[in-house]
Amino acid sequence: MLFTGEAGIGKQTTAMNFAMAVHCQTPGPMADNVSFSGTKHIDPCGACRPCRKIASGNHPDIHCVAPSGAYIRIDAIRGLCEAISLRPTEGEMRVALIADAHLMNAEAGNALLKALEEPPGKTVFILTAPQAADILPTIVSRCRQIRFSPIPEDRLIEYLIDDAGLLQQDACAIARLAGGSIGAALALSGNREIIEHRKQVIDNMEMIFRGPRGSDLQWAETLAADREKALLYLEIMKSWLRDLAVFPVSPDRIVNSDDRSRISEKAGRLEKKQLLEKLDAIWQTERSLQCNARPRLAMEALFMKLAK
Ligand SMILES: [Zn+2]
Questions:
Q1: How far is the CA of 214 from the centre of ligand 1 (A)?
Q2: Ligand 1 mean position to 94 CA, how many Å?
Q3: Domains and CATH numbers, the chain
Q4: pLDDT band at residue 140, thresholds of 50, 70 and 90?
Q5: CA 157 to CA 172: how far, in whole Å?
Q6: Distance 62 CA to ligand 1 centre (A)
Q7: How remote is the CA of residue 88 from the centroid of ligand 1, in Å?
Q8: Most buried in the list 122, 134, 157, 165, measured by CB within 10 Å?
Q9: Single pTM value for the model
Q10: How confident is the prediction for the chain on average, in pLDDT?
Q11: What are the tens digits of pLDDT across the range 83-137?
């Protein structure tokens, strides 16, 4: 199976739940549980021995491979293939999870392809990636693709209030910034600084639009020191640019609704083409940061593009 969708949307959580559901000794009743999409599902208990072993990463029949550094290398895939060539030790079924499969280098991808062409018995492969286009087509054609949609904003707000204990107003702001990703929402809710600095980030970006200044380079350096923070700030920048594009057509759908008067003032000033170019520059920067590009260079290049 190939699970595709944005980061933090629940692909790996679902993969682990699947592994648990396969091995759980006391699963919940099947018929009474209805999932998000309305289909029946098996609820693993999360408490029995196999469930606990899977949760702690110690189940001998669950094999996980993830990138080390920027890539998944051939050694990791070889190790996986070796492990699954043996009989399953505890359970009936083995699960081979390859997280961020788009980061396999060509050698690793080809090694995996061989395993998929002649799969060992009783083994389910689960690959996760942002989109199928990022993976070798020969691999994709051997997978059943399951697309993960962003979580609707109202469900995310509900979750942040009920399960993460957030106040209504914070939950709303975070849900908007998280763009349907529960992982992003949780990362944001643990980071008050980001929420409180949202206006500052937007102010700084507005200044950059007016032309390059010395202090922008300093800001680039500060952001570059913390990759995770840089990615969140880029998310805030995107939400602002998106608002500028959305406002003229549907003003009630803006994300930064507490900054409405400024958005209405700025919305007409940038042409659509310019807005899209700036958004595109941010997307590219996100990608290069995720691929371990040198953060400072990436941020400086972005600021130059934003200032154009
Ligand atoms: Zn269980």
A1: 57
A2: 16
A3: 2-147 (3.40.50.300), 151-184 (no CATH), 197-307 (1.20.272)
A4: very high
A5: 6
A6: 14
A7: 18
A8: 157
A9: 0.64
A10: 85
A11: 888 877 776 789 999 999 999 999 999 999 999 998 888 899 999 999 999 899 9
